Structure formats: structure tokens, C-alpha cells
Amino acid sequence: LDFVDALKNKIVLDIGAKSTDIIIAEERKIWTRSVLIGGNDLTKAIATNLRISFKEAEELKRKEGIVAMTEGDKAFSSHAGAISDAVSPILVELLTNISKSIGYYKSQFGETKILSEILITGGCSKLKNIAQFISENIDIPTKVFNLLEKIKGDLDFKFTEELAGRMDVGVGLALRTVTPLTTRANLLPKEMLQAKEFEKKKWYVYGSFLIAVFIFMTMTGFATWANRRKSIALARASALIERYTKFHGTIKGRI
């Protein structure tokens, strides 16, 4: 999977159990933010709505989890309507955070940037209709990201479909053993990054300032010296003229 071609100007949503990572890729740079909303919140909402245990709700979410986009979707299973009603408010809150993150990213890096697609990964990417739900509410084409499709080999299609969105981290770590990568990540705020960069370069700045001061003082000193030489030369010339004038007057008087 080529990072530049596959992820440039795209958003990756890694919806995990406890949090969701929002990752925006641009050329060979990434911007990321974590939101404390994840699959466990959906499970708790289902458990509360259906009055069942967390374990039962988790199992139900995996088997029958759905976001109902039409009335017909509620007939997907006997619990589809109740599950959709439970998870929808949580997903709306998640979408609000995603929209704010996109807005912040554009305000920092350019309002004209076009984010072409959202790729969903993580365990909750298996929730039926979640891609359509996100796409219609954020107005960006969205699909479930199945990294296993990029791996060539004798893999069973049903196997890859079942594990889609759950094995991306493992596959990524495995690929690093095949193609070692040098990854540099810095999650500090922009202001702190600028302060750290200045800290690294401050001696160059101070040195440049001292050199500039030295050059200024040298030029000023040279100009002062030149003006002084000029003043001395003018004074000598004036003295010679004065002596000549007196001498000329004396000679003229005698004649």
C-alpha cells in the first residue's frame, strides 16, 4: 500500500473500543486527533436501551449492529430498531467531533484543501450502514477500509471480510518487518512546535544578530573615520587658503 497514492488528502477513522482516532493524511505528513468515543460507548447504549448486560450487548452489536437509514433497515433483525435508536445519538456526537476536527484542520492548514474520502477502520467499522451514515452527514464519500485486500496470497474472501477493519494495526506492524520505515511523529500543538524549533535555532539567530551588529558598528566606525579624515582635510585646506590669502595681501601691500 503506497502511503502517498492511497491516503493523500483522505481521512482515516479508526473507531476502537475506547476511542476514535481521526487521521488526516497529506502527502508524507499526517495530522491526528483522538476522541474519547468508541465501541464500548455503543455497547453501553445498547445495554441500557435493551436492559441487558454489557457482555450480551457486545455480542448483539457484533451480530446485529446496524444504523437504520430507512424504515426497511429496522426489519434487518428483531433488535435492529432498538440497536439503531441506541447507537445513533453516540454516532451523532462522534460526527460532531469529526466535523469540528476537519474544520480545525482546514483553519490551520488551508481552507481550500479538498478531503476526498473517509476510510473507516477498527472494530466498529463492521456496524451495518455506518459508512453511509457518516457519508450522508459529513458529505464526504465514505467506505470501510479493508487493508487485507491489498495483500496478495491465498486468503479466503470470507476470512478477509470478517476481519476487515480489525487487523489493520497488525498488518501494518507486520509490513514494517518486510519494509522498514523511518517514522517521525510529533503530536505537540503548533505553538509548542514553533517554540521548540526556535529553541533549536536560537543560537543561530543570536549569532546572526551579533554579526549584523558587528557589521553595523564596523560600517558606522568606518563612516565616522572617513568623515573625520574629510573634516581634517577640509580644515587643512581652509588653513592653506587662509595663509595664502594673508600672504597675498602682504605682498600686494608692499608692492
From TrEMBL:
Protein keywords: Membrane, Transmembrane, Transmembrane helix
Lineage, opening ranks: unclassified sequences, metagenomes, ecological metagenomes
One Pfam assignment: PilM_2
SUPFAM superfamilies attached to this UniProt entry: Actin-like ATPase domain
Listed InterPro entries: ATPase_NBD, FtsA/MreB, PilM
Residue ranges of the TM segments: 203-226
Annotated Gene3D superfamilies: 3.30.420.40
PANTHER family linked: CELL DIVISION PROTEIN FTSA-RELATED, ETHANOLAMINE UTILIZATION PROTEIN EUTJ
Protein name per the record: SHS2 domain-containing protein
